[in-house]
């Protein structure tokens, strides 16, 4: 007696239909450009102009100033200069490692502080400010007040 | 029928293979029907197709965003990169270029706002910012106005152009200024944000 031959092939047509639909839907909703934001703390700048009413202890001002040729990192009167460096393409960029090194020193001396004032000269490229801002946030200085003067 | 080679005429015949090309591929037909020694395979090999689809689905699932927000950046604008940014929220967007400043926002009534400002003192932008602030304060009188805005600017423009916009924003009471950057938002713990 001959037995009826079993069709061992899977019916893949529904899978292909489902995958096609998934691919179309995901292509439409895919995020091709990932954006993020760095939030500035305006209150930090405004409050720094007036003495803190909570305590009379002198608060050390931590100010990062972007100049045309270098970054000046001031801890009250103590100032450190961080020069810009050139990348492989010959473009001027912020020296992140040196900046991080100075910030680590600040962190050791001011472990609880999170506020920094960021000043910039008008001719400095916007990307330098963002790179500095990003480095500050990455090192735990989340309250960055950008001075608009 | 007479035009097809290899076929022969019958008065009564059972319906069967009836696609008649110019040349009847008799041997192939016989193999497909199982008449020949070897059976020709008629199943398409779609395993590789499913593999490709699977890879595509996995790749696209990784790029899937549940935030439901779409942000459009002009192709002439190159945003600076960051590594430690927060997730971008849907707020009013100010695009800064050397020539012009664009302001786009969904107004309170749902009417979209679009402004092009070319004056360095930004009188039109200031007026619109004041108007939006006044309207929002009227709608929610007990809630303090927290003017939040995203600023997108080309990475190579001098900071002066961004400062002008920031000055206009602060003087109009918009203090929540966020700088848009490229790069995935870093995962931040609530303790870090405090």
Name of the top-level CATH class of the largest domain in chain B = Alpha Beta
- CATH fold-level label of the domain at 42-50 and 59-146 in chain A: Nucleotidyltransferase, domain 5
User: How many strands in all of chain A?
Assistant: 8
Q: What level of helicity do the residues of chain A show?
A: 25-40%
The share of residues in extended strands of chain B comes to 15-25%
Largest sheet of chain A: 5 strands, mixed
Helix run count of chain A: 4
The dominant shape of chain A is elongated
Low-confidence stretches of chain B: 189-194
- Estimate the global geometry of chain B from the Cα principal axes: elongated
- Number of discrete helical segments of chain B: 5
Strand order of the largest sheet of chain A: 4-3-2-7-8
Strand residue content of chain A: 15-25%
Biggest sheet character of chain B: 5 strands, mixed
Number of domains of chain B: 2
> Biggest interface in this structure?
A-B, 45 and 55 residues
Outline the secondary-structure elements.
The complex is a heterodimer of chains A (149) and B (194).
Chain A: H1 13-29, E1 35-39, H2 42-48, E2 62-66, E3 70-75, E4 78-83, E5 85-86, E6 92-93, H3 96-109, E7 115-120, H4 126-138, E8 143-146
Parallel strand pairs in A: 2-7, 7-8
Antiparallel strand pairs in A: 2-3, 3-4, 5-6
Chain B: H1 26-32, H2 47-62, E1 86-87, E2 92-96, E3 101-106, E4 112-117, H3 123-139, E5 148-153, H4 159-171, E6 176-182, H5 190-193
Parallel strand pairs in B: 2-5, 5-6
Antiparallel strand pairs in B: 2-3, 3-4
């Amino acid at each position: 007696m001959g037995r009826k031959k079993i069709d061992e092939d899977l019916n893949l047509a529904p899978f292909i239909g489902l995958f096609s639909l998934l691919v179309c839907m995901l292509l439409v909703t895919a995020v091709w450009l990932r954006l993020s934001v760095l939030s500035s703390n305006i209150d930090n700048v405004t409050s720094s102009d007036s003495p803190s009413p909570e305590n009379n202890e002198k608060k050390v001002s931590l100010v990062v100033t972007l100049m045309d040729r270098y970054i000046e990192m001031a801890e009250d009167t103590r100032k450190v200069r961080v020069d810009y460096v050139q990348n492989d393409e010959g473009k001027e960029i912020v020296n992140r490692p040196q900046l991080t090194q100075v910030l680590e020193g600040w962190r050791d001396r001011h472990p609880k502080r999170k506020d920094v004032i960021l000043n910039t000269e008008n001719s400095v490229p916007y990307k330098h400010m963002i790179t500095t801002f990003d480095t500050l946030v990455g090192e735990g200085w989340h309250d960055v007040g950008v001075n608009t003067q | 029928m007479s035009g097809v080679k290899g076929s022969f005429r019958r008065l009564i015949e059972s319906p069967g293979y009836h696609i008649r090309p110019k040349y009847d591929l008799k041997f192939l037909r016989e193999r497909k029907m199982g008449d020949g020694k070897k059976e020709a395979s008629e199943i398409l090999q779609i395993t590789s197709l499913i593999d490709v689809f699977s890879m595509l689905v996995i790749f696209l699932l990784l790029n899937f965003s549940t935030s439901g927000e779409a942000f459009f950046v002009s192709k002439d604008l190159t945003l600076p990169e960051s590594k430690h940014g927060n997730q971008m929220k849907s707020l009013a967007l100010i695009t800064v270029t050397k020539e012009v400043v664009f302001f786009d926002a969904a107004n309170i009534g749902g009417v979209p706002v679009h402004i092009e400002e070319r004056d360095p003192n930004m009188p039109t932008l200031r007026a619109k910012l004041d108007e939006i602030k006044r309207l929002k304060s009227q709608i929610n009188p007990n809630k303090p106005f927290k003017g939040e805005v995203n600023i997108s600017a080309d990475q190579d423009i001098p900071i002066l152009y961004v400062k002008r916009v920031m000055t206009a924003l602060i003087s109009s009471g918009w203090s929540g200024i966020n700088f848009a950057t490229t790069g995935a938002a870093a995962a931040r713990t609530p303790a870090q944000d405090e």
